[in-house]
Each structure stands twice: as C-alpha cells, then as structure tokens.
Amino acid sequence: MSERQEENRLVAERRAKLAALRESGGVVFPNDFRPDSHAAELKARYGGRSREELEALGLEVAVAGRLVRNRGAFLELLDETGRIQLYVTKAARPFAKSLDLGDILGVRGRLHKSGMGELYVAMEEWRLLTKSLRPLPDKFHGLADQELRYRRRYLDLIANPEVREVFRTRSRVVAFLRRFLDERGFLEVETPMLQLIPGGAAARPFRTHHNALDVDMFLRVAPELYLKRLVVGGFERVYELNRNFRNEGLSTRHNPEFTMLEFYQAYADYRDLMDLLEQMLRSLVGEVLGTTRVYNRVRNARGEVLAESVYDFAQPFRRMTLTEAILRYNPDIPPAALADEEGARELAAHLDIPLQDGWGLGKIQLEIFEKTVEHRLEEPTFITRYPAEVSPLARRSDDDPFYADRFELFVGGREIANGFSELNDPEDQAERFRQQAAARAAGDEEAMYYDADYIRALEYGLPPTAGAGLGVDRLVMLLTDSPSIRDVLLFPHLRPEAPHRE
After folding, report:
1. What's the whole-number mean pLDDT along residues 389-398?
2. Domains in the chain and their CATH numbers?
3. DSSP structural state of residue 305
4. Alpha-carbon gap, residue 447 to 436, rounded angstroms
C-alpha cells in the first residue's frame, strides 16, 4: 500500500468516527469549553512544587489543546505554549481509546506530579472539541520536508514547535519598531497599496485592473512617494510598516511580497537617520534577544554547524564610503580604475561583470561593489556616498554632485536598510524622472515612472527631510538565524503544487 493510500485509509476511518458522532445526536463541534490554564504557565508556577505540596493544594485546572501523543495511561496535549500530560483515569479510558492523534480536547481535573517529576492533569471531565480528519505527519515524529513545511505552515507549527518561536520573535520585532518610533514623535500612517503609478523604488511592479474605474493599476513597490507627500502636508515625522510587492525572482532573500518599515523625518539628513537606525537596532537586539550579540550559523543537510559568525550590536557600526569599501576589499584595484567610465568598464570586464549600454560610471561602480564587496560585509556596516546615478530619489551631495547623500546598512553580508537625504528640488527630481522614463522606454522594466503629481507636491515645498527603509523580513532572518526568507514568512510564495493523481 502506498503512502497516499495509507493516508486515505486513515482519513476514511476518522470520517467514519465523525459520522458516528453525528448519528449519536450530540453536538459534534462544541464551542462551550473554556480553558483557564496553559501548559507553560502551569509548569512555570507549579513545576517547582513537590508532589505532596500539589496534593495539598488540590488545584483543579481546565486545559485544552491538540492530542499529540497517546501512551495508554498518559496522553500528551499541545497548546499554544507547549505540552502538558493528561492521566487517563479509569472512567476516561473508553474516551481515550476512541481518540486519534490530532484531535482537539478539553479536559478538567486535578493537577498532580508524577514520580518522574512531570506535571499532569487527571482526566475527571473531558470533551472532544474538534475531530481531526487527517493524520499528523509521520505519526508526529516530525515534518522534515522543507517545501512541505512552507506549503502547509499549519502542520509545521504543530510538528515543529521551535518554528513558533521564530514568529513570536517576529511579532516582538514589529511591536518594538512601532514603540521605538512612537516614543520619538513619529506618526504611523497608511498609504495606498493600489497605485496608478508605482514609485519609490527601482523594481518591476505587479499590474492589475480596476473594473469600475476601467484603469490599470499597480501593487505598490514602496510607499515612499506617498509618505513624502505627507511631509509636504505638514506631518514632520511619519512611518509605515507596510507590505510591498515586487514582481521579481524568488530566492533565499527575495519574496514577491515582503514587509518594510519606512520612516521620514523633516529637518534631518541621512547622518541623523544613520544614528537613529543604529540606536534603534542596538536597542531592539538587546530587548528582543536579551543580548546584543547575534549568532548566525552555517549548517549542512544534517543540521551540523559548519561555521559560526557573531555580530555584536553593542559596538559602534562601521562606516565607509562605497569607493572606500571597494578598495578595502579589493586591494589590487588601483583607485584610478574607479575614477572614469572607461577604466571602470575595463575593471568590470576583468571581474566578469556583464554591463549594459547606457550605464554610466556610477552604475558600474555599484555593480563592482555588489559583486566583490557586499557579501563580505559581516559586522554591521554603513556604506555611504552612493552615486547619484543609482539613487534617483536622493539628494546630491553638496561637495560633489556625482554622489548622493545616501547610505545602506549591511549585516551578515545582507543589505537590511537603505536611507538618504531626500531630494526636495522639484526641477532636479523631474529631470531624474525623465531619465528613468527614458530607461524604461529603452527596456528597463525596473526603472521608475514619471510621477507628475509627486513633482507638483514638491513644487509646494518639501522641507529638508531624510528617510529610510528597513527590511523587516531580513532583520528577522538575522535575529532568528534563519537561512531563508521563507523561514520567517508564515505563508511564503511557492510554485503551485502538481495535482495529485489517485
């Protein structure tokens, strides 16, 4: 019998039990049981008590959860916080024998401690709350197939309790980010996800159609241009924890929809936001992890650690310009090779970096940086002075207009934040939009559109402003030592499953 045939047989047996319950005339899926305790709370409060002390207390508790183990005399229940044992009393034996792993129960009884020091609840009252019609994976020994874990996250959360902690950490990260900015006078806002013109990032958008308006629209690639409109309108500090959508490939670092924190502060420049971001992340790591040291490990297929890196967020973040970084990590490159387009093109060819017609010196420098430096930036590092050519929304540097007042933050070889002093010169911004539109017309699907309304907003006056975006998914990957973005998304995007053939 194949594995699928065996599963079908077990499902049929469970459906027969459900049918019998329906025929008995009782409530099949009741919703009147209310637990008053959780496994972890009971263990924290009473785990240190002796058997005699618990007996003297005579504490009655009500617990509910999923049956994950049946050892005859004892059942094991899994709730949101962990596992708790149930002792099958003589009166409860017929009920216990009728159960299947995965069933959801409600049990009331006295709390005791076994001779092995384990807490358990004696089954004095019991109720089947939900009949599970499908068997748990591999008889609950674990769900090891990585793709199946992503596709059926509900099973992953049942079979691999450590996964729950990843998403609890994610929730704590998001809560901290909100609190940190709220305490500093930032206002949380919401901006459109459906946009007539996608802007704020160099990315290929998803396109859809609005029937009532009979117009094509786009899922946003970033909220940036709307947030800066709000600064024009008088909100001097704003932020949005937002979902973005980019029609790009899948990888361990990329998902078509992802979470970003974007925040903007008037009367500030990119250096101010570098300081703020460093303070934010140092405080976040300390509060969420309880330490400023973050560990990232490389493992083989068996889970064995091959290499380990430690990043200490208590230390000042390194800061260097993009050119300095290229020269530091490529000591054989002469500075003159980065100074003009012809030399940079020759260098890129030597490094096997493919180039496109129309790319200027700034774009070539960025390609060299991404190929030879980015993956080597392990400790928290700010890279500054990006070429203005690759920073179409950033303010040019006063001392050299070739560069923009911009930074990116890297940790563990990954970019996790990007920020800059905002371009508030409407004529300069209009010209850069025209350049982007020309690149789009020439075939660059990631180039920006010309946004006339945003130019109009700038013409009313955007105060000197700095803004930054922080990749929440990549940050959580770092803090939870997760090798793939799919590990920190509850429901990552995957190719559709091939249909099963019976």
Report:
1. 95
2. 3-135 (2.40.50.140), 158-330+373-488 (3.30.930.10)
3. E
4. 5
